[in-house]
Amino acid sequence: MVFETLYSPTRFLQQMLGDVPHLTDLQAYEAWWEAEGRAISAAVDRAGTPWLRQHDRFGTRVDDIGFPPDYWRMLRQGYKAGATWRAFDSPSLAPSFLVGYVAGFYDTGLYCPYTVSLSTAVPLAKYGTPELKDRFLTPLLRRDDTVWQGATWMTEIRGGSDLGANVDTVARPDADGGWRLTGDKYFTSNAGAEVAVVAARVEGGQPGVRGLALFLLPRRRADGSLNYHIRRLKDKIATRSVPTGEIELRDSEAYLLGRPEWGIYLILEVLNLSRVANSMGSVALAQRALADALAFAERRVAFGKPIIEHALLRRQFEKRVDDLRRAFALAWESVRLADTVRAVTPPYPDAFHLCRLVIHLAKYYTAEVAVQTAKWAIEVNGGLGTLAEYGVERWLREAMIVDVWEGPPHRQILDGLEVMERKGAHKLLWEHLDADPGDLDRRLDAHLALPPDEKEAGAQEVFEALADFTARALLEKHVPG
User: Fold this and answer.
1) Predicted structure pTM score
2) Domain range for 470
């Protein structure tokens, strides 16, 4: 088996897709990373957590986030390459996800700002008024250094999985037809963004998830003052190229997206997009970890020959590459299906429920591949793999983040189980794959018929089997060669 495509994200994409949209532009973006971006990314990672300057010297609240100067050049390079705008330059979301894949190969944390910016722009374009789109979508789609960033802020101090119980931020209508939000968001990726989509509870509305709505919240009020404050930035184990903070909303100006009663569905759409991006980023990270392991294995000599020529390690490489290819096939199918439901609104058709199941499977499966591949890359490098100066350990730090971003593995399992039980999404999947599930169909039906606690306790094994079956079927169905 030939491993050379592991060194290049665009060559791997060609191997997996055949015809890659906007390939020349992606190759130019990759060339920029090789010439400049790698060094910038490494410097940002070594610098550690970005810092927050809350006030200027005159006591005015500014909430400026500090990075090494080249960080902004690295960040804006991806926006200019099309991390957001390419999703609106064609009917497909795929070109934006491909830009994200290249970025994720070199710096997985950097893919987060692009992810949440896209997950802001898409619902704004779909549910925003013409006036809102003119004011806020237009700058999100700029192709130069003046581009705005987006963010998606749902999670509060008690957690993010059970939004119905844990979102305490309150939305009150104001006299001008807008809304005012008051509350605190605890895990806010891309703190400092010019505009964010925010989950809040409509005052006087229904309890639980039915009382939630989705709002657009700008960084600055109509009078130019700050519309939200950053309480602090998080010191995380990785993803140092995205600032994660705690946000204070105090009578903050906001705009309702869609209908109030659609809120939880719009929140789910936002999460779906982010999970697709997370899946693509996980595969890109796994490819990078494999590439770094291969670079070492081809030059490290032990017992008279490069270690890649030893049968056991070579067999392990072959297995990891097979895992990578299956993970990509599943992630790419989530991209394809996200395109098919991009324009649908509640109540959702079967295509949406199929898409949702595949997204849960992809997020679960690809994140696990990323974690295990990154861990194994350290093993290939031996003791050197544990040293920060060589950069291999970084991929395990990054992989642990993509594993929990947008819902950890158990959340994907339980939500996937729910869409199968309520919507029969696994039956839709068999038809979509045009592949015989064999005994798996019977196993799933039997599992879904179990008492609730027993069904939940044993869910992982059957969900893993479904994810593996789907990934293998998609690789055989869609990938050239």
Assistant:
1) 0.97
2) 264-478
